[in-house]
Write a structure and sequence with these properties.
Elements: H1 13-36, H2 63-85, H3 98-113, H4 118-131, H5 144-147, H6 150-176, H7 194-210, H8 212-223, H9 232-241, H10 245-264, H11 288-314, H12 332-350
Helix pairs in contact: 1-2, 1-6, 2-3, 3-6, 4-11, 7-10, 7-12, 8-10, 11-12
Length: 379
Amino acid sequence: MATTTPRSLISGWPAWSAYAAALWSLGYGLLGVAWALGAPGFPWGASDPDPDGALSILAGATPRPGGWWIAAFGVLGAILALTLAHTRRRGQGLASLTPLLLAWPSAAVLIVVIPDSRLMMGVAYSPLLAVAPLFDLSLGGTTLADAWPWPVVNQLVCVLGGLLLAAAALACQRRRRDACRTCGRTGQDGWTAPEAAARWGRRAVYIAATVPLIYCATRWCWALGVPLGVSKEFLVEGARDAPGIWLAGAYLATFGAGGGVLTLGLAQRWGEVFPRWILGLRGRRVPPLLAIIPATLVAITITVAGMTYIRGAIAGRFSMSEWGAWLPETFWPVWGGALAAAALAYHLRRRGQCRYCGQGAGDRADRPSPQPVQEGPLR
């Protein structure tokens, strides 16, 4: 039975996401106009610090005509988002599906195609760069400002726009299916039922925890002076050009391995109830978003980084004699996809009864204790 529980800003995302996506599109389109008219800050091409254009798919773009193209796509994106907002029922024929068929690929382009591996580097290295001066680590002179120049910050802006558009498409899709706007249930759960999600989610967790280990092995070996997958000269030259770079690589590998361990929590009891050794929190339930949001963001960044290496491999920029420097990264989209699936499964198991449509009252997969505790959607 549906309830009249007031919706919070977060749980009310189906109502406002399309309008937010339209505002984002118009705002970014106006930036495109400004860049085309000569304003500084065009984030690709000559103003991008990418030295040889090997990272960004838009490395060859210029303010003209690039800015005008951005403006045009911004207008079209706003129209598309508003169309999604006002699509209420399932229509007949292919024409009724056109907004969704355009929205999902557009969101994917903004989230995983336009950004590049520097987005992941910025996220992963920021903690290390913040404390590097305390331990006298030069890291080749790289600073936080170097890790987050405007072209990389712009990638975050594009990811935000893609997420808003994806949310608008999902809300539209739920309206067409006459599903609950908040939880997406229709009364026929199928693969989204907690028991089913527990099965396929467990497989996704194991894949997400295993795939990065090949990359981790290479970087740990390099830090120890073992040229796994590369030549000895590769290690010597890298250490000479950027002292401390292999220690930084070992840090990143440890960061990835630690993330793999945390990924296991998406299918384990300690991922739902804080373990005993966490003072002040032990025995309490883990808020679902505490696991879902980081897992989703990491899934996006590592998928983006993996796509960058795949583009480089297709373009012939890498050598098989130095396979350790690039081949493990080409499997990162598998890692990212598995992590995203594991986070989705975790959400489906933990969501409990919907406060707005009343469905899910019998779900028990999210209850690690004998006490029947119910949760609202993604709070």
